[in-house]
Structures are given as structure tokens and as C-alpha cells.
Amino acid sequence: MRHQRENDTIAAISTALGESGIGIIRISGTDAVDIASRVLDRGVRKAETHTIHYRHAVCKNEIIDEVLVSVMLAPRSYTGENTVEINCHGGVLAVERVLEEVLKAGASLAEPGEFSKRAFLNGRIDLSQAEAVMDVIQAKNRFALKAAVSQLSGTLSKKLKELRNQLLDETAWIEAALDDPEHYDLSGYPEELGKKTDAMIADLETLIRNAENGRVMKEGISTVILGRPNAGKSSLMNLLSGADRAIVTDIAGTTRDILTEHIRLAGLSLNLTDTAGIRESEDIVERIGVERARKAAEEADLLLLVIDGSSELQEADRLLLHEIEEKNAIVLLNKSDLDTQISLEELQKLSSHPVILFSAKDGTGLSEMETTMREMFYHGNINFNDQIYITNSRHREALEQALASVRLVKQSIKNGLPEDFFSIDLQDAYESLGIITGETVEDDVVNRIFEKFCTGK
């Protein structure tokens, strides 16, 4: 796989534009040091690698900014190429002026993700690590950040390399035995391979099983608040979001449409949606709101069913308890700050879901709800020392393809098929895992992945 403009030296602003303490222009390529020297009052051509120098960025002897210049020579840089980073003051004009001079000096403007793409093409990182770079940048909670950093450090790559080596060893053994049967004995080999495929299947199943945790870490838990009118749904929305996002009144049916907010709660990310109160209504607008509420509930990862504890249990409450029975849900017995007319024990008998005594007004039960959520989605324990969390749907798809191929090997052994059948599926599994790391992926897929990166990364 060759870079379309691999001989170009590229440059871009690698920090967000705006008023800030610092703004960085990154230059990468064979001529990075020479190009940087052309825009500095004193060059850095004789600079040793991994050194920092005080300079002035100039244009026709006019000082644009005073800067610090980092020099990292190939191959000991992020891209594997000569890299220079000019650290300017963070004003928009200064950074853009310096970049303009860098481009005039011979650099080409970098495309989105081109620095990371070069790091991949130059063998500094594999494709899964490159994707982890953007996951680090886009992490919405501490679990997502830890998962991304773990993948960036190579934990997934290491595991995939182990699996691919096992698959390659078995394929090579079979091919050698078929080509030279006089020197290789395949007696008893199917049974031996069967044990090895069992271990491979277990490893792949574990990775795929952890993919659901990974998805929740990365994307957040799609959470919908349900309940009949005036149960306290909007008050719960405001409590969790920390702002008066939803209108709270004593008038039933105030909330007519769905309202979504992204929040962080005790290290978790929630894509939280408040919905219209579920009830029969003649009001066409309210009916549309109820329909949207039911649709949102159908697609949610988690439902928070709010029951008004200050009044007796209504038939509408019972219907909602029945409707969510097969869903992932937590039942909140709300308004515990008032005289409750419903007991916790009564609700627990009617629902198989966790039931929490709650008050959206003073926050009673919030800590218990957070703990319950974590246990529901992360099984109470997230261990980044020995667990690998798949946060990318592309990775999960490739793992599922590899698992299907290894299972075919197992089935062929069971059916007593010839050994050459084994090697075909072993090779398919090997290539499927290579798609994740980029070793067997097509150029257009690679390009599509890096196009999603921000410019300068």
C-alpha cells in the first residue's frame, strides 16, 4: 500500500483554533526541518532530534510570533518521518500567519488524518491503534478514555497478533503435511486442532462479548425516562442534567415531545431522553408525543420508569410495568420526600427490575441508581488490566467473521472432512483479523477511516 503523495512534506494546525495558551503547527516529511528553518529567524537545520528551541517566526524580516520549535527526526517521531512542531501563542491570527508561511516555504496542507495515516503506512502504529487516536480525542467518559488508551497502547493488537500467529502456524502445518506426507504425520491431528480451535473460539467470543460494554463506553447508554403524566420525569431530567432543561409544572401533559441531553453520571455517559407522559389523550399533539415516547423506549438501552409514590398505583403504572418487563429497566418510586402511598415492597412484587426509593427533588436514591446502572452495563467490574474492550463496530464485524470461520473448522473436524478443508477456513479467519490491524484491508477502507479524522491529527 503506497501513499499517493508520500514524497510531500505536509503541514497543518494541530490544535483547535481560538484564543488559547498555545497553538501548534505540525510539519512532517523529508523536508520538514528545511521548511521550518525557512520561516524562523534562526534555523533548526543542525538541531538534534527531540530537542526544543526558542525562535521567532518571521515573514520578510517581520516577526510574526515568538515560538518554541520541537524537532523529532525520523524514525523516532509519531509519523516515522522528520517532524517539526512550531508552538505559537494561541491567537488565531498568529497561528494562521505562521502556517501560511510554512506552506509558502514548500509544505502541502495536510488532509484530515494524514499524519496518523502516515504513522500507519510507515509501520509506527497499526490500523486499530490509529483508530484509537480518535477514540481518545472523542472520549465522552473515563471508561471510554481508558478503553481508547488501552487500545492505543497495543493491547488489542497484541491479542490479535497472538491469534493470527496460531492460525498461521496451523495453516502452514497442514499445507506442509499435504505437500510432503512422507515427512509429516497427520495422524491424530484433527483431534489436536479441535482443542486449539476451542481455545480460539473462547478468545474470540470473549472479545465479541466485551464489544457491548465497549459500545456503551464509547457511545453512551441510550436512556429513556418513562412514566405517566406528573410522575416526575421532567424533574428527573433536570436533576440528572444539572439544569432546567425540561419544563416542570403541576399540569399533566406539559411535556409534548421528546427532549434529549447528553450527560455524564459517575463516570457513565447517558444519552438521556425525557418523554411525554404515557396516557390516553384526545389531544393530537400529545398523542404524537406518546407515540414518539414509545418508539424511543423500544430503541433504548435502558429505561427509567418513574412511578409517582405520592398517589396510589394507577392502572397506567401497572400497564407500563408490564410493557417494560422484557426490557433493561430501573423502576424509580419517586416523590419519596412526600407521604408515599405506594410501598417499595408492593412495587418489587410487581416488577422483576430493580426498584429504588427515589426523590427527583432532593436526589434521594441517586447514588443507588448510579451503582445499579454500572452493574447492569459493566457487570460491576471493569478491569483494564486483563480485559480488552472492542469499541469499534468495524472491529466487531471482523471478529464475528473470524469466529464464524473458526467454527467452520470445528465443524469440518466433527464431520471428518479432509485436512485441506481446515486450511481454507483457518486462512479466512487469519485474513478477517488482519482487517482490524490493517494488514489485509483494502486501500479504500483505509482512506475512508482516515477521512473521518480531524485535520492536524
UniProtKB/TrEMBL annotation:
The terms describing its cellular component in GO are: cytosol
Q: Where is the TrmE-type G domain?
A: 220-378
InterPro entries under this entry? G_TrmE, GTP-bd, GTP-bd_TrmE_N, GTPase_MnmE, MnmE_dom2, MnmE_helical, P-loop_NTPase, Small_GTP-bd
- Annotated GO MF terms: GTP binding; GTPase activity; identical protein binding; metal ion binding
Residues annotated for Mg(2+) binding in this entry: S234, T255
One Pfam entry name: TrmE_N
Q: Which GO terms describe its biological process?
A: tRNA methylation; tRNA wobble uridine modification
**Residues that, per the record, bind K(+):** N230, T249, I251, T254
- In the Enzyme Commission scheme, what number(s) does this protein have? 3.6.-.-
Compartmental location: Cytoplasm
Q: Which UniProt keywords apply?
A: Cytoplasm, GTP-binding, Hydrolase, Magnesium, Metal-binding, Nucleotide-binding, Potassium, tRNA processing
Q: Which residues form a coiled coil?
A: none
> Which amino acids does the record list as binding GTP?
230-235, 249-255, 274-277
In this chain, (6S)-5-formyl-5,6,7,8-tetrahydrofolate is annotated as bound at R26, E85, R124, K457
Co-factor: note = Binds 1 potassium ion per subunit.
Q: Which cofactor does it need?
A: K(+)
To which protein family does this belong?
Belongs to the TRAFAC class TrmE-Era-EngA-EngB-Septin-like GTPase superfamily. TrmE GTPase family.
Summarizing the function annotation, the protein's role is: Exhibits a very high intrinsic GTPase hydrolysis rate. Involved in the addition of a carboxymethylaminomethyl (cmnm) group at the wobble position (U34) of certain tRNAs, forming tRNA-cmnm(5)s(2)U34.
Q: How does it assemble?
A: Homodimer. Heterotetramer of two MnmE and two MnmG subunits.
Q: What is this protein called?
A: tRNA modification GTPase MnmE
Q: What is the lineage of its organism?
A: Bacteria, Bacillati, Bacillota, Clostridia, Lachnospirales
